[in-house]
Amino acid sequence: MPPFRPVTERLWEKIKKTDSSEDCWFWTGAKTRQGYGTIAIKGKAKLAHRTVYETSVEPIPDELCVMHICDNPSCCNPKHLKLGTIYENNKDRHEKNRSKGKAHKGENSPMSKLTSNDVLEIFKSEEKLKEIAKKFGITFQTVSDIQNGKSWNWLTKNEANHRAGGSFK
Ligand SMILES: [Zn+2]
Asked: What is the DSSP letter of 65?
């Protein structure tokens, strides 16, 4: 093994990329107890998703955290990461904990039977919620969350934007 390799090289070889930037790209290396990927840089353990953000997107200001839009701590897809304040991060976590068990975190979550295409189909469907739920073998709540943009919104965002004439965030 060569004595020194660039951080980005060591970083990306541990990330399971897919063809789509919509997907979560999971960290395959060491993780913290909370599920965040870690990488050793100059002898110190750094959070993998932060390092991805720093090296692929922009520098992280001291007072800000890097948050997961997709809710998967080990995801390293730069498109699923955003800067937030510590306050926002805590608030986000608090809200997610409160809805624990109801939240569906995406295709790779063990709770989910849905693919990205299913989600889009559900989002666009004009059938009754009950019918959709039955068709996909999911709960009424899941259908409602998808249609309201409460879950999977990184997938449905563009569609919603289109529908709302660009005003949807
Ligand atoms: Zn992700």
From this structure: E
Phi, then psi, of 29 in degrees rounded to 5: -90, -155
Q: What is the CA(69)–ligand 1 centre distance, in A? A: 7
68 Cα–ligand 1 center, Å = 7
Q: Distance between CA atoms of 31 and 24, rounded to whole angstroms?
A: 16
Domains along the chain? 7-104 (3.90.75.20), 116-164 (no CATH)
| 157 CA to centre of ligand 1 in angstroms | 14
Instruction: Say if residues 77 and 21 touch (Cβ distance below 8 Å).
Output: yes
Give the ranges where the chain is alpha helix by DSSP (H).
Answer: 7-12, 48-56, 86-98, 116-124, 129-136, 140-147, 153-163
| CA dihedral of 84, 89, 95, 100, whole degrees rounded to 10 | 120
Token pair for residue 94?
């608090």
Instruction: For residue 108, report the distance from its CA to the centre of ligand 1, in Å.
Output: 9
Block means of pLDDT (10 residues each) for the chain, 169 residues, are: 81 97 97 96 95 96 93 96 88 73 49 75 88 85 87 80 62
Name the pTM for this structure: 0.56
| Coil, strand or helix at 166 | coil
